[in-house]
Amino acid sequence: MLSCTKMITMCLQSSKQKHLQLQHQQKEQQNIFHDIFRRADKNDDGKLSFEEFNAYFADGVLTTEELKELFHSIDEQQNKNLDTEKLSDYFSQHLGEYLNVFSALESLNVAISKAVDKTKEVRQ
What we know:
The chain is mainly alpha-helical. The chain has a single domain, classed as Orthogonal Bundle (Recoverin, domain 1), CATH 1.10.238.10. The protein has five helices and two strands, in the order αβααβαα. It has helices at residues 4-40, 50-57, 64-74, 84-93, 99-123; strands at residues 47-49, 81-83. Strands 1-2 form a two-stranded antiparallel sheet. It is flat, with a radius of gyration of 20 Å. The model has no long low-confidence stretch (mean pLDDT 78). One of its GO terms (molecular function) is calcium ion binding. Pfam families: EF-hand_1 (PF00036). It comes from Gouania willdenowi. Residues 28-63 form the EF-hand domain. Keywords: Calcium, Metal-binding.
C-alpha cells in the first residue's frame, strides 16, 4: 500500500507532466499560427491591418462585412491592426477538434523541410 506522501508525490508529478504537455501543445499551436499569419503580413511589420486580414481570409465563406466584424472583435483595443500574437491566441482558443489536424500538419511540414534540406546537401 502507498503512503500518503507517495500518493501526493505521484499526483503532483502527474499534474506537472500534464502541465508540461499542455505548455508544449500551446507552443505548437502558436508556432502553427505564427507561420500562417507571417504569410498574411505582407509588409512584415508583425501586424495585420484589416486590408491584409481581408486579403488573406477572404475565401467566399465570410463576407467582407463578417470579416470586418471578426477583425474588430479580435482587435479589442481598436488600434486597427492585429499583432500576430493576439491573432494566434484568438485562433488557438477556437481550435477544438482541429488541434490534432494542425499538429499533424506542422509535424509533416517539419519532416518535409528536413527531407528537402537533406536532399540539398546530398546534391551539392
